[in-house]
Amino acid sequence: MQNDDPADKDARVVPFRHRRSEELGGAGPGGREPVGGLDRYERGEDADDYRHRMLVNVAALLVVGGLIGAGVWIANTMAEMRKNQDCALQGRRNCATFQTTRDRW
After folding, report:
1. Which of 84, 105, 82, 80 is nearest to 96 (CA)?
2. 3-state DSSP: the chain helix, strand, coil percent, rounded to 5?
3. DSSP state of 4
4. Residue 45 has pLDDT above 60, yes or no
5. Whole-prediction pTM value?
6. C-beta of residue 23 within 8 angstroms of C-beta of residue 29
7. Integer Cα distance of 93 and 40 in angstroms
């Protein structure tokens, strides 16, 4: 069965050459390191302040919690306002909600 698709006439296979084992090691082509000196990014033993890091984590958690709470409050307020506006636009009366209790005495 022959495929007469015109896109297949321009298709070609691109050969990939295998990397040599020395290229996969530490030194790249030309004998130099691919990334020079990572020692400057290392921290010393005294650089880690655990207490300060935990305080910053707790502060970040409180900020994120506050943002989530504010977002939920705004969403609920918008939904309640939309419900009241829909009620009023339909021409209904008594659209406002009242909280009542059965315990009078």
Report:
1. 84
2. 50, 0, 50
3. -
4. yes
5. 0.48
6. yes
7. 72
